[in-house]
Specification:
Elements: H1 3-22, E1 54-57, E2 61-62, E3 68-72, E4 79-82, E5 93-98, E6 105-108, E7 113-114, E8 123-126, E9 133-139, E10 142-149, E11 151-153
Parallel strand pairs: 1-3, 2-4, 3-5, 4-6, 7-10
Antiparallel strand pairs: 5-9, 6-8, 8-11, 9-10
Length: about 150
């Protein structure tokens, strides 16, 4: 093998290795991923620009305690319940949004709603128009208000 052939082989090997490295995702390196498909990734830290998926509630019933948006779509006033969160659910954020123009009522079981007043409250009554909403954060077995548009607490 002459020296020119060896150089050519070395260059080709380096290019092939770089191509493998460029397309390989490791578990420990910090990488910017472009056009990669990950199967069941575990994401730690960072931020997301994902739009949360809403759960539609078109009939009376219980609102599930899960991160996201509860969309009230019943074509008359809905009677909903929201159970007290457990301490294991601390930090769970639920936004309840009315998509219909009815005075929906959400009952927080066990007077577990806190909005910065002296007492825990039970009832959330939505103004009778689409767009009324409230944002709740679970903390220490209670629901704490972090945002409110046209919802009356009592």
């Amino acid at each position: 093998m002459d020296f020119t052939s060896f150089d050519e082989l070395t260059v080709r090997m380096k290019k092939a290795m770089q191509n493998i490295y460029d397309n390989f995702v490791t578990k420990t390196d910090t990488q910017t991923l472009t056009n990669k498909t990950l199967t069941s990734p575990t994401i730690v830290g960072g931020t997301s620009t994902a739009i949360p998926v809403g759960t539609v509630y078109s009939a009376d019933g219980a609102i599930a305690i899960s991160e996201g948006i509860a969309l009230l779509t019943k074509t008359s006033a809905a009677a909903m319940t929201l159970a007290a969160p457990t301490t294991g659910q601390n930090g769970t954020i639920i936004t309840i949004l009315s998509r219909t123009a009815f005075a929906h009522v959400v009952t927080c079981t066990g007077a577990t709603f806190l909005n910065g007043t002296a007492t825990a409250l039970t009832t959330l009554t939505f103004a009778a128009y689409a767009g009324a909403s409230i944002r709740l954060i679970a903390d220490n077995g209670k629901w704490c208000q972090s945002g409110n548009t046209a919802v009356t607490a009592s």
